[in-house]
Design brief:
Blueprint: E1 2-6, H1 11-18, E2 24-28, E3 39-43, E4 48-53, E5 56-59, E6 62-63, H2 74-87, E7 103-108, H3 112-115, E8 132-137, E9 139-144, E10 149-154, H4 162-181, E11 198-199, H5 203-218, E12 224-234, H6 241-252, E13 257-263, E14 266-272, E15 275-280, E16 283-286, E17 289-294, H7 299-310, H8 313-331, E18 340-349, E19 353-363, H9 370-377, E20 385-386, H10 388-399, E21 409-414, E22 419-422, E23 427-431, E24 434-443, H11 449-465
Antiparallel strand pairs: 1-10, 2-3, 2-13, 3-9, 4-5, 4-8, 5-6, 7-8, 7-21, 9-10, 11-12, 12-20, 12-24, 13-14, 14-23, 15-16, 15-22, 16-19, 17-19, 18-19, 21-22, 23-24
Helix pairs in contact: 2-9, 5-11
């Protein structure tokens, strides 16, 4: 492995210089936070791609021989194959560097979760979005924003021979440094556009779905479920998703677990504030968000709104239910008596909303890793409901369309075993000439259908408004 310090303060400069390479991944800590938002990572031009799409699992386009029995759900067999693939490139971590030092990065769509359990398919497919895309990167650029330091890490994989691996690591590091030394290319098109957004449901239909969810709760099927609506708009010629992310979304809706993915026909811009799961040195942490209220530009009103959220019986109960679900999920892969809740219903404030956030942590059992955690806990309970499987069945029935990347996870799985993933909320998918944005919320027995609809609009508004030209630019 080769590690070189760099003088490159803004990760966006690197993204603009490397955007001509295939399958670019930018994991972006765009918002500072006392304990989060410390690291950012940029990687492109992977040596391999692990993809689950249309019932097929491929490595660099070729079918993968899946372990396990044919009767086992495809998603579980795919994760077993992913775990085996990552093990081929196992390497120790280098102390003092940011935690992603080469590995797989990309996303798992929410719909991959259905493949883990053989759940029914929605009535409408979301074309152009594979259930899983993870690209294997031998070179990673990493930023430590707290220390103001930047590194290039080149692993030399997939060369198996140590001498050849060292030679490849040096060559690849030189190639990337040469690209970084060139002037950054300008964004190719417009960052904003006046778009005509359309939802997949009317207000009445969404409120009816909330009412139906309450009926399921009162009948004893579930305790809660996350129900969302989908907004889509046709993109004009010349619109540039990267410019939108760089100049608009990451500025107006800064978040600790943001990301930009350019995977050819599919591009994703995420401003998520929520961690799904981190694995580091055998420890697991998940940070579910449940409970949201808008912010105000007036300090007194903003403080009042945060106090209303902190005291909300409905939101606090919803958060506790998801914490219980995640404690159960983590207990499947963590050592006995190590699963704890160091934070319950903590108030955290972001650009446009206040949230209630809890923290659940544990210590992995010997021999288990981040992929095993995925098998036990994906998708995150905060965006399904509880019990998880029945809630997912109800989501499929009421939403009727695949969620795609929304409510899945974006992040990395390092060759050294480290991993960190978000919950892909506040996220835009660019596919098929459209921009797609989802927004939803957790429904409980206390849910008011009209209020729940309004909450989805609050959550979606900041992302949708990021597309609009600023007043002075119109």
């Amino acid at each position: 492995m080769i590690v070189r310090p760099l003088v490159l303060r803004d990760p966006m400069d690197a993204v603009r210089r490397l955007k001509g390479l295939a399958n670019l991944t930018f994991l972006d800590s765009a918002m500072s936070h006392p304990t989060l938002g410390r690291f950012s990572f940029v990687a492109a031009d992977p040596f391999g791609s692990f993809v689950v799409d249309g019932g097929r699992v491929t490595w660099n386009g070729a079918p993968v021989d899946l372990p396990g029995e044919a009767a086992e759900p495809l998603g579980r067999r795919a994760l077993a194959a992913l775990k085996a693939r990552l093990a081929l490139y196992r390497q120790p971590s280098v102390p003092g560097l940011p935690p992603f030092q080469g590995g797989a990065a990309g996303y798992l769509a929410y719909d991959f979760g259905r493949l883990l359990e053989r759940l029914p398919e929605p009535a409408v497919a979301q074309g152009g979005v594979p259930a899983l895309q993870l690209h294997f990167y031998d070179v990673v650029l990493s930023w430590d924003h707290r220390e103001n330091r930047v590194w290039l890490v080149s692993t030399g994989w997939p060369e198996a021979d140590p001498v050849r691996r060292d030679l490849r690591a040096a060559r690849r590091a030189d190639e990337v440094e040469a690209l970084l030394a060139a002037p950054p290319s300008a964004d190719e098109g417009a960052a904003t556009a006046e778009l005509s957004w359309r939802s997949n449901v009317t207000r009445a239909e969404f409120e009816a779905a909330v009412a139906r969810t309450r009926e399921y709760i009162l009948a004893g099927d579930i305790f809660q479920a996350n129900i969302a609506q989908r907004f889509a708009a046709t993109l004009p010629a010349g619109f540039d998703p990267l410019a939108f992310y760089a100049e608009r979304l990451r500025r107006v809706n800064k978040a600790t677990f943001a990301a930009y993915l350019d995977y050819g026909a599919l591009k994703v811009a995420s401003s998520s504030p929520e961690r799904f799961a981190q694995v580091y040195d055998g420890r697991v942490e998940t940070r579910p968000i449940k409970g949201t209220i808008r912010r105000s530009a007036h300090p007194a009103e903003d403080m009042h709104l945060s106090a209303v959220l902190a005291a909300s019986e409905k939101d606090r109960a919803e958060n506790v239910m998801i914490v219980d679900l995640l404690r159960n999920d983590l207990s499947r892969v963590c050592r006995p008596h190590t699963v704890h809740v160091p934070q319950l219903n903590g108030l955290e404030s972001y650009a446009t909303v206040h949230h209630l956030v809890s923290v659940v942590s544990g210590a992995l059992k010997d021999g288990l890793d981040a992929v095993d955690l995925l098998a036990a806990a994906f998708p995150g309970g905060s965006i399904t409901g509880a019990p998880k499987i029945r809630a997912m069945e109800i989501i499929t029935e009421l939403e009727r369309i695949e969620r795609g990347v929304y409510c899945g996870s974006i992040g990395y799985f390092g060759f050294d075993g480290a991993a960190d993933t978000n919950i892909a909320i506040r996220t835009v998918s660019f596919v098929g000439g459209e921009a797609i944005v989802w927004a939803g919320g957790g429904m409980t027995a206390l849910s008011n259908p009209a209020d729940e609809y309004d909450e989805t609009i609050v959550k979606a508004r900041r992302v949708l408004e990021a597309f609009r030209p600023e007043e002075g630019a119109r």
